[in-house]
Amino acid sequence: MLDKLLERGVITDDEMDLAGTASRADKARAVIDTVRRKGSEASSALISALCEEDRCLSTELNLT
């Protein structure tokens, strides 16, 4: 998922590296916080990437 966000220009290499050192829950929080600060376009890209990566979770979260 981080790779998709990096490819789409939503996060930078530095932001990806910082998220990579955290626990799974902390990594998720850090990525979500980073993307939220970047606005609605970045948030939409995150949702889109999540829907592509994990259909079950995105359905459970009513994202699709």
TrEMBL record:
<dbReference type="Pfam" id="PF00619">
    <property type="entry name" value="CARD"/>
</dbReference>
<protein>
    <recommendedName>
        <fullName>CARD domain-containing protein</fullName>
    </recommendedName>
</protein>
<dbReference type="InterPro" id="IPR011029">
    <property type="entry name" value="DEATH-like_dom_sf"/>
</dbReference>
<feature type="domain" description="CARD">
    <location>
        <begin position="1"/>
        <end position="64"/>
    </location>
</feature>
<dbReference type="InterPro" id="IPR001315">
    <property type="entry name" value="CARD"/>
</dbReference>
<dbReference type="GO" id="GO:0042981">
    <property type="term" value="P:regulation of apoptotic process"/>
</dbReference>
